[in-house]
Every structure is written in structure tokens, then in C-alpha cells.
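Researcher: Let's run the pair from yesterday's discussion. Sequence first, then C-alpha cells, for each.
Model: Starting with the first of the pair.
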Amino acid sequence: QVQLVESGGGLVRAGESLRLSCRASGSIFSVNAMGWYRQAPGKQREFVASIISGGSTRYADSVKGRFAVSRDYAKDTVYLQMGSLKPEDTAVYYCNAAITVPTRIASEYSYWGQGTQVTVSS
């Protein structure tokens, strides 16, 4: 009943920038947190960045100073601005959100997007 739709992935050269977007839609009471994970071929999915209510952000050490996460609260959309991209940033990037849904008793659930491919060439 809830879906996250991602966009913005693509192929870029090392040193270039890319901006990912993810919008939550469906039966939603509130979007409490949004963030990004990534998974490279043959590796486990790893945390990249997140933003919670109030605007606090967190970043993986590997992307600090290069990536910036932001949110448009009116649109239930999260962005990931990726700068100074490196070949090691190549991965499928997944949007994640903690969402309270209006069930019998409102409860928070975690949802995932379908993933968008980011490829950085050297």
C-alpha cells in the first residue's frame, strides 16, 4: 500500500555529480525518517545517509564531505546529492523510509524502493 519511487541514477565519470530522488506515496500517516543504502556487486547492502524528523542527518564515513541528504517534507521526498563521485561509489542505491501507516492502531514500518543504478567510470 506504500511505495517508494526512485529516480536519478545513471552513468557518470569520476569527479562528476549526480542527484538521486525518492518519493513516498500511498496510505501514509507520517514519514518519520528517510535515507539511502547501496549495494555493490558481490557485497552486502550498506548504509549511506539518512535524515530524520527535525532535519538531523547521518552519513557513512566513506561519503562524508561528498554526499548530502535532504528532504522535501511537503512532497515526502528525499534527495541524495552525490559529488566528487568515485568508481567505488558504483552500486545500486536503495531508498528507505520509516513510515507510520493508518491501520487499526497506527504503527511504523520500514519500506524500500526498487533501487537505482549508479555507475562511476574512471
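Model: Moving on to the second of the pair.
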Amino acid sequence: QVQLHESGGGLVQAGGSLRLSCVASTRTFSNYHMGWFRQAPGKERELLAAIRWSGNSPYYADSVKGRFTISRDNAKNTVYLQMNNLKPEDTAVYYCAAKLSLVTTYGNWGQGTQVTVSS
């Protein structure tokens, strides 16, 4: 079990950038695989990016590939999502999630942070 807290959301213009942060309250953060999800009104939850505990081989959904970058700083118990070239379609509540195994589903979730992109 780990508590997660997202921050950095807000209102931005199309083409702008935003950096989301997710801080974990655990001393074993480096053991967790981390992911970023989003959910827009009327749409299903979507996995955007994921990063292993080692930080290698990050995953990106096609919808954000080339625009978003996931990274982590284990010394700060923090995972980041750098979002560039934002589009109105990116408007959603963004969540970070954690899991200890690549085989399992994500069982630890943050409260979410709202990202709104205006045109």
C-alpha cells in the first residue's frame, strides 16, 4: 500500500505545456512500477505512460507518443509527466498509479488532477 498525490494540473492553451508530479508516501518507492492514466468525460480510463522501477523501457500510448514524457526521481519519491503540444482532446482528470509487479494491475491510485486545454 502506498499513498499517491498528483499536482501540476491546470488550464492551458492548445500548444502549451504542463508538467505533472506525483509524490509517493513510501520508503520503498523505487520498488514500484508507475503509470499515468487519464479519464475524460464520457470516455474510458486510458493508460498514457508507464515506467519501470529501473526507469528503462518506458511505455507510451499512441495518443501521446512524441508529446508526453514520463520520468521518475526515486530519491524524491516522485514520478513526472511532461506534457508538450497539448491539445483540447487532452482535457481530462490525470491520475498516477503504482504497482509492485508487471504482471498485476495497478492497485494504488492518486486523487487525480484536472488538466483543461482550451482552443
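Researcher: Give me one sentence on the second I can quote.
Model: Residues 32 and 116 are 29 Å apart (CA to CA).
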